[in-house]
Structure formats: C-alpha cells, structure tokens
Amino acid sequence: MSDAPKIPHEAQQTAHPHHPPRTEPARDRATGEGTPAGTGDAGPAPIRFGTDGWRAVIAEAFTFANVRRVAWALAEHLQATGRASQGVAVGYDCRFLSDRFAATVASVLAAAGIPVVLSRTACPTPALSWAVVSRKLGAGVMITASHNPPEYNGFKLKGWFGGPALPDETRQLEAVLARQDATRPPGQEPPRGMDLDEARRRGRIEEADLIAPYTEQLRRLVDWDRLRAARLRLVVDPMHGAARGVLAQMLREAGAEVTEIRGDWNPGFGGLAPEPIAPNLGPAVEAVKSLGAQAVLVTDGDGDRVGAVDATGEVLDAQRIFALLLQHLVEVRGWTGSVVKTFAGTRMVDKLAARYGLPFRETPIGFKHVCEYALKEDVLIGGEESGGIGIKNHMPERDGLLCNLLLAEIMATRGCTLGQQVATLMAEIGPHYFQRRDLHLTPDGKNRLLRHLEEDPPARLAGWTVEKVDPLDGCKLIFGPSRWILFRASGTEPVVRVYAEAESPAEVETLLADGLRLVESVTGGTGR
C-alpha cells in the first residue's frame, strides 16, 4: 500500500499569484496521520454532517484517516447514485494542512475510479462551487472550516448544482459511512488512495485554476462600467482567508483605489476566528478611519460570507447587508423572485418582501435549506444571519465576493456610503438593530436549556409579553413585528447562540441581558 499521495513539483510552479502552492502531502506525524480519532475495539467514532458539513479539531477528529473514511463513503455514494462518472471538484482554503487533506480526498476518489478536478491553489468556496456548475460535475468537496477558529478544519460537500448538499444526501452519506465503518475490521484504517502522480498519468486527476473561471463569472454579474465611473476608495479585508488577493484585484480592475489588509497567508488568522462580525473587525475599523476609505468589504475564511464596515467605522452586520442587497436587486436591477431567509434573519427582509409584493419563505438555519427552495422555484435572494447570501442568475450558493461587489455597485449607483443607505432604508421601514451572543455551555447545560425552553418557555422577558413561541429551529420568542429573541444550539460549533432583534440598541441589550439571565438560571452559568 502506497504512502500518502505526493504533489508533483510542477504543480508548485503554476500557483495562483495570490495563494501559496500546494505543498507535498507527505505523511505528517504531528497531525496524527495514521491514528484516526476514536478507533479501537469499539470502532471509529461516528462522523456527522452538521449545518454545513463536517468540522472537527485538526489532529483530534479531523485526521487524514478520518478524511479518508469520508472520502471512501462519498465515492460509494456517488457510484450508487450514478454521479461518479461526472467527476468531483476538490478545493481547499488557507488553513493548516488544507492542501494535504484535499490531496487525500482526491487520491481516494481517483482510486475509486472517479475523475477529479483538483484546485491548483487555495480558492474561495464559491470558486469551487462554480467549477462544479460550469463543468457539470457530480459533486464538489471543499476542505474548509469556514469561520471556525484556526484549530478546526472541515469537509463541505457540494451537490451537482454547486450549493451545499441537501439534508437527504448528507443522511445517505452518513449511512454509507456507518456501514463501511461497521464492516471494517476493528482497528483497521480505511485504505489509502492512489498516488497523485499515477492518478495524473492515468487521467483521473486534473489540476486546474478554479479562480480564473469564477472571477470571469462574477464580471458578468456586476455593472463594471458603473464601478469604473465611481472611482471608489475601498479597503478589502479577507481575514487571511481564501479570498485574499482575489476580491481586491477585481475591484482594482474596476477602477477602485484598494488597500487590502489581512491579506497575507496566516493559518492562525491572527488569533481571531475568520468570521466577519464586529468583535473580529477591529483592524477593518481602524483601516477605514486611518485611510479615509468609503468602506471596508470583508469576507470570511473561505469567502462565502460577506461583511462590511462603513466609512464612519460602523460595522454593518449581515442583516443590514441582506436588506441592502434585496433593495438594490429590486429597485435598481428590476429583478423579481421569491425571498428566502433563515430563522435568525432580520424582520427587515420580511417587510421588504411584502413591500415589493414578492413571495417570502423562512427556513431552518443553514443555507442548505435556502438551497432547497432555489432548486424548485425562482429565488431572487436567499441568505442567513451569518452573512451567507446567494443571488439570482448565479448559482444556489453563498458568495461573499459577489455580495461585496454588489455592495460596491450600490455605493456607485446611489452616490452615498453604505451607512447612509442603511439610514435611508430604516427611515422607510422602521429601525432594526441586531446582536448575537455565543455561549460555551457544557453538553449537560445545553441540553437542560433547550429542554426547558421547549417544555416551559417564559411568558414574559425583559418586560415584554411573549406573543408567539416559534420552535422552527431552536426557540424563538416573538414580542411584536420588530422584536424577538432566539435560543439555538449551533450546528457547526460547540456553542448555544442567542440572537436578538429590536427597534433600538438599548432594547437589544435589554433582551440579551434578560436572555442570558434565563440561561444562567437554568444552567447555573452562561459560559461567557
């Protein structure tokens, strides 16, 4: 049986200028290669796909052996569903060992006889997704833990349509994985894959630039002439993630004066999780003020989420960005279609959909649920509180780079800053303010909290009467048309998230404070 697959030297000579080349994926003892987590007489620990794929801590559960387990299960699943011959695109982000994990996936799929298109460099997740769509492949695999802290990595599965694999498919994959685990002798690792040199010689692996075709697609979706005429002054913050260099270069081509921050390769992400939320955007706030820029456009660790900072240094959360994009697509582009948001999304979206006479849908949290609607009806825009937003006429997938380009288009079209446009919008539909808290609870505390909320939700909180309890995904207490609080266990991290929206920052703080007191009374602590 061969050692871990090796990346040929010539692949290192054709790297994308913004990303380091893939390194040789030799056996890495420091990562636990060859010692999968949870093995022994009891068999390997089960692997579960959460809100957006499988994520785990590198060298604990996210090991080469466990990645091979998932890859072999995927190979069998694709063969069973008749999609194996269509091939699979494999991409990866800038995290520790992502290139080697991607090579491992490619080598397993090649060993199973499945054609693979392997990204030559780190790439944004939507670039991987576009490769699946444009090449008409059967599936895609992105090695990324998205916005998680740097010690994590993950395995995102993309369907033939480019978006996240739907719940039925991930359940089928988990069933194949469990059956393969059950039939493997105790303590035996899953087989290694094919040597990459051999796989390339036999035509089973094609190494390709996935970024260039993707950026060409984005150019077709944005008003380039309007951007060139505006001559915007912008800061781009990829948060050391997979969009580094890509968005900044596109905006420069559009005539903008661009400064990129946190654009170096840093798999530790500077000590912050690469999630575009206010606590992580201090460098962006400092940059927009010191440089006198009109905005900072932000992407997360794998480039599928959007964030922004206004010229004044105010962080625009994804809720407001969603509303701005919806308004722009309808009022400026003249597009129509249904509007889909996940359960933690702002009520601004509901109000705008009603204002424009557009069908409105609300789903459980996770873009895969948005994707289900996009596959069966004409969806104008769909998105989630975390900044994952998909747009019509592209693909049913989140795209942080496209959303940021559209934010630039909004500034160019309106002739104002993003903050000014938000103020105009809220003057029309009413004020909306939002915050989120992430609580690290023990498993027992988390279970007690969720059970308590299910069985005995409060009738009042923060002085307001609960008008409705919505259990669609977690427990949402609704106090009126613009005021609510949601308690929900994360599907990607070991936390309970508390979300709140109200008509003023003070009301949001009051809601969250009472919500956290409720958590503490049930669990004995908030984990803050």
Q: What features would you highlight for this structure?
A:
Alpha-D-Glucose-1,6-Bisphosphate, Chain A, domain 3; globular; alpha/beta; 37% helix; disordered N terminus; isomerase; A-D-PHexomutase_C; metal-binding; six-stranded mixed beta sheet; TATA-Binding Protein; five-stranded mixed beta sheet; 17 helices; 528 residues
Overview of the structural elements:
- By secondary structure, the protein is an alpha/beta fold.
- The chain has 3 domains: 9-210, Alpha-D-Glucose-1,6-Bisphosphate, Chain A, domain 3, CATH 3.40.120; 221-429, Alpha-D-Glucose-1,6-Bisphosphate, Chain A, domain 3 (3-Layer(aba) Sandwich); 433-523, TATA-Binding Protein (2-Layer Sandwich).
- The chain has 17 helices and 22 strands.
- A 6-stranded mixed sheet has the order 1-5-4-2-3-6, with helices on both faces. Strands 8-7-9-10-11 form a 5-stranded mixed sheet, sandwiched between helices. It has a 5-stranded antiparallel sheet with strand order 16-22-21-20-19.
- The protein is globular and about 60 Å long.
- The termini are far apart.
In short:
Its cofactor is Mg(2+). 37% of the residues lie in helices and 19% in strands.
